Amino acid sequence: MQPGPPSPTPLRPGTAGTPPIVQAVPPSGSPPGQPMVPPPLGVPGGGTASLGGGGQVQAGTLPPAPPNTDPDAAYDPRSATSAYRPPEGMMSKPQPIVRRTGPRPLPNFSQPMPLFSLQASDLTYNAARYWQVTVTLTSNTTRTLDTQVQCSFLNAGRSVGEAYFGPTAVAPGEQIVTDLIGPPTTAYVDSTTCRIVGP
């Protein structure tokens, strides 16, 4: 017959409410009867870990309980006592502002002009970490026409992302300026090409 589990050792009188010191069998070579003392908390690369206000954790002691008794307070970054920074990740793709002049009188052209003129400039990236290019679309016709602009963001001549503006109605002589937002900056972009798609 196997013996049952050992019975717990009762607390000494006068120690109620005091947490007992947990003792373990010391490693060989240690004096018998002495409690094992855990090494201080370490951090990767060496050094001693600290909690809260910079006080080091001493063996056998626990850090003081936080003043807030709300169990969910530890997960609220706004009320956390330590410096908290949310993980940096991709932000949502921004919606650029479209600046339109409305209809304008057409200049006198000395040669035939296409229905629209398109200029692309200022290839850069924005605060949300997306590539962007500024396009200027100008109507050269006396009619209101629908059109669309497509820009390809390139790496060594190969497309790594596309962006579109429109289709939109463009009034006679109107000029439209906006930013086309391309792929995130995790993709390498060295140039862009933009073209008018229709009419």
Q: Describe it for me?
A:
The protein is mostly beta strands and 199 residues long. It has a domain at 99-197: Immunoglobulin-like (Sandwich). The chain is 0% helix and 34% strand. The protein is built from no helices and nine strands. The protein has strands at residues 50-51, 55-56, 99-100, 116-125, 130-139, 145-155, 158-170, 175-184, 191-197. Strands 3-8-5-4 form a four-stranded antiparallel sheet, with no helix packed on it. The chain has a three-stranded antiparallel sheet with strand order 7-6-9, with no helix packed on it. The chain starts with 49 loop residues before the first strand and ends with a strand. Residues 18-27, 45-63, 72-77 and 80-87 have low confidence and may be disordered.
